[in-house]
Amino acid sequence: MIAALLLSPLTPLEHLLRHVLNWLHYKAGLPWAWSIVGLTVIVRVALVPLTVRQIHSMQNLQAHAPQMKEIQKKYKGDRQKQNEELMRFYRENQINPAASCLPLVAQFPVFIGLYYTLRAFARHPPPGDLSWLHVVPSIAAHANSHWSGYLLLAIYAISQMASTLLMGTTMDKTQRTLLLIMPLAFLAVVAHFPAGLVLYWMTTNLWTVGQGLITRRLVPKKGEAPAPKRSSRTPPKDSGNDDGAAKSAPPPQPSAAPKAPPKRVKRKKKGSRR
């Protein structure tokens, strides 16, 4: 046991993933492929606190993006000074750029542990059907071993690019373009992974896409006041600018009636007597 731990630090995680898959298959009654989908959901639910920190960090970066661009523009010729000023700006505004990568970093050991688990499945297949939706013949076989594996790879690449578009709103154009090209560039490598591993990554990408859509709808941007609730006393919105200006202008006051001129009283002359 100690030798195994020294050879592979991820051996305990591999055993944990195997136990979770066995419980989902034998106790919950899920097929092996759907057990991987269930494992993905369990991992993503466990990472919800890190995901919340990721969302807040991205909103914080987006809110301070103009100031950071000014710093980058000001110290464009001095890279070291630019990094120092950015780090100072992060400390003053309590910004943690690394928080946006926490869910991805936390999933990496799970990805490696599942890879070794499925490799053991390939050497010693467990009892039960290893196919998925009667399309993927075996989750332990390489993704490029069957035509259905290429379909799985295509869904993986599309979901990876969609998750990058939704979660990478604060990236510059160059960084976002690189992240969009990376899934296509790594397809040749991912094709040699077990189909179950591609299924895991595809499921987590779809989770990220759904999470991004919900975040955009429900979570207000930082610094943005929530829309006021309408009630029965709330006046209706104006349909146009001209009509709104005409309605908002106070009605003209009626002009006051002209006053009658004062009556002149004739005074008697002092010297006149009758």
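That was protein one. Protein two is written in the same sequence-then-structure order:
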Amino acid sequence: MELDFFFFFGSTHSYLSVMRIEELAAGAGILVNWRPFSVRALMREQGNTFHTISPRTAYMWRDIERRAAEHDLPFSRPPIWPTDPDQLANRVGIVAASEGWCPAYAKASFRSWYLDGTELGDLASLSAVLRELGKTPEDIIAKANSEAVRANYDSETDVARKLGVFGVPTFAVGREIFWGDDRLEQALAWAGGTHPAQRR
């Protein structure tokens, strides 16, 4: 009854899952393990590039707008993207996951990025998010920049790599993976043992 949630701060579709997964998992009685990792590293390795101006990009924003409306999530305009070039927001996510406040941090970060128009990883906006959560920004950012947390971030990326993850959000139940926010409900069903494919 556990689900690993692999996501990336800076992933456009991860916004939808970050804002939905807690309530859905609680309703299904599923424990969620929040696992930020570097999807950028995997995409580079796999030759999976995503241009910022293309028909695919235009479709992506429209798809997110439609899905946000479907799930009653706010969406006013595309956020700054790409963002967080040093992946600092993600490394803070590693600290938050290890200390048990990753869900609150992730939701606050995506709200700041998507709704307030701030840039992920920017020291001022990141510090504001951390203060909102009652954290001391200087202490958390120092941890995020430490060799230990950088190594942990690389380790989480390696776990995703070995599972065959290629994009985010990805949900994993053991070695069974589900890619995309539109697979969240299926992943929860699998974690709960109620997915139709498990009865075959």
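The chain has one domain: 2-199. Keep this in mind for the problem set.
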